[in-house]
Each structure stands twice: as structure tokens, then as C-alpha cells.
Amino acid sequence: MRIFDPHIHMTSRTTDDYQAMYDAGVRALVEPSFWLGQPRTSPASFFDYFDALLGWEPFRAAQYGIAHHCTLALNPKEANDPRCTPVLDALPRYLVKDSVVAVGEIGYDSMTPAEDTALAAQLQLAADHGLPALVHTPHRDKLAGLRRTIDVVRESNLAPEFVVLDHLNETTVKDALDSGCWAGFSIYPDTKMDEDRMVAVLKLHGTEKILVNSAADWGRSDPLKTRGVGDAMLAAGFTEDDVDQVLWRNPVAFYGQSGRLHLDTATPDPLHEGNSILRGGE
Ligand SMILES: [Zn+2]
């Protein structure tokens, strides 16, 4: 089983996770930029983080045979913090980088006017750069949040097939697919979607334009949930080809629209800017 995790925050994960992901079949991933678990106090904090997603983290992933890509943005939560919003002015110089395959995560957290502004501005940045957008949907008041998100996408200059609406569940999947966007599902250990609910969604809505991710981050999460969905699909009677479509070909098709996927993980460089993963090297 080959797996492309289209949304996982590897910065918060250990090297053991990389090894376990490789052993489970993960060969490529996308790491969206998000908040740090604590508020940032200036745009400079974003710049160091973006540089890590563009340099250090791909280097670390490559040591474990995994191709690493990222999406960059001002995240929905910090769109409300005036200390952070100036990062929007700096985004264009980051969005031209090779391994940036989308603008994201953008979207609504609490559906404030500041979030409206940041979402519209970043959908425009995606359109300007010919990039897809990874759009987070709110965890509270889900259906209303999703519908408002779809309205903003419709008013933007970005085509719906360039948008994935993420963190969906049974209540939001139909509206998301009807909008022409891609439908993303985050599988968690004890909240939101689990493997069996995901299989039920796939039975009802098919395997087209569906992305499944582990969204693993600082909180309780499991980077092997993608593999768990593949196994659950097979146990439920889906074919190997169905699994390959959902866990590999769909994310490749979606993020491939950036023209920037690099899926060969040939021989990794032993050093990144003079440093190895051995804490400074031998
Ligand atoms: Zn995320």
C-alpha cells in the first residue's frame, strides 16, 4: 500500500513517527503551516517556521524515504492577531518556492471579520500563484461554517477544483462535494472522524475527489491513521485499486495541480546547511 498523507504536521512529530510511517507505506506528505500551539508574537516567527518547512523538515523526512512538501499561509486562528497579520505581505516571496504545493491552512476558526479578510486575501494569493488552497473548516458550528466557506470560495478567483475543504464529516461532505471542491477528512484517535466512519462515507459518496489525512499534530493524534483507513477499506470490501486512488492518486492529482510535486525520494543529502540529524553531526 502506497500512501500520500495530504495533511500532517511533522514538525510536532518524532523520528520514530517518520520510521513508523515509512514502514506503514507512507512515501509522500504535505505539511501545512499552522500555529505553534502558543501564540506567535511577530511575523519573524513565521519566517523561521516557513524556512523550517522548506528546508529542515524535508531534509529530515528524506532521511526516512518520505517526500515532504508544504503549504504556507497565515492560519485561521492567528488571522485574528494584529501582531501576526503583516505576514500576509511577505507570503508572495515564499509562495514561489519549489516545494510549496498550496496556500494553507486558511479558512475560518471563529468566523470573525479578520478571518474573512485573511481568507479572501489568501484565496487571491493562490489564484495569483497558480496554486491550490487547503481550506480548514471550523470545528464548531460545522455546517454553517462550511457553507460560508463555500460562498467565499465561489466569490474568489480560484476554481473550486483548486480547493480542498478539510476536516469534513458526515454532515458536511455532501455540500463540499456538490461545490466542486475536493473533500478532505482528518482521522483522529478519539474525536471527529474515525476509520469506520470514513469507510461509511466512502461507501455512500464514492472515492472520487476524496482526500484522507491523519492531521497529526501536537495534540492526541496518530500519524498511521491513513494506513488504518486503507486497512479498513480492504476489510470492508474495497479493492486495492480503490485504496490506491484514495490514499495516493487523489492527493497526487490535487496537489499535482501546483506543478511542484517531487515524488522520488532517491538518495537524501547527508547534511542540511552543514547540519545532520545527529545534532550537529560527527
Ligand atoms: Zn492542520
UniProtKB/TrEMBL annotation:
PANTHER family: HYDROLASE TATD. Belongs to the metallo-dependent hydrolases superfamily. It comes from the Bacteria. GO terms for molecular function: hydrolase activity, acting on ester bonds; metal ion binding. This is TatD family hydrolase. The keyword Cell membrane does not apply. It holds the Pfam family TatD_DNase. The keyword Chloroplast does not apply. InterPro entries: Metal_Hydrolase, TatD-like, UCP005295. Keywords: Hydrolase, Metal-binding. The lineage of its organism: Bacteria, Bacillati, Actinomycetota, Actinomycetes, Kitasatosporales.
